[in-house]
Here is the input.
Amino acid sequence: MCFYAMVHYKLHYACVACRVSFKRFPLDGGDPPCPNCGRALVCAGHDFAPPPRRDTDAWSAVGAVLGAGLRYEGLEPCGCGKRPRFRPRTGAEVRARLAVAARTGVPVAEALARRDPAVPEEDD
Here is the structure.
C-alpha cells in the first residue's frame, strides 16, 4: 500500500537565505513565498529535516542540494520505501562531491546524491 497516496501530506519548503523551513500543501501556481523575505520557497520534499538556524555550514549544504534540483525523499517518491537517500549535511561533504563531479564529468546532482563521492551507487 502506498503510504503517501492515501492522505495528502504537507511538503517541506525551505528558504535557504533566511534559513527557515515550513510545511505547506503544494500550490498549483508554483512555490509559496517566504513570509520573511518574500522569495519563493524551494520544495525540499517529504523527508527534509532542517538544520538549526545558527548552523550556516549545514544550510549551505542544503542550498547546494536544493540548488542541484534534488529533494529530501525516501527511496520511492510515493513513500512506499522508507529508506531515505543520502544527502550531504556539511560543506566539506558538498565540496568533496563537487570536486569529484568536476574531475570526472559526472552531473552535479548525481555526485551530490552519492554516499561515497568516488563510487557510483547501484540502484536497488
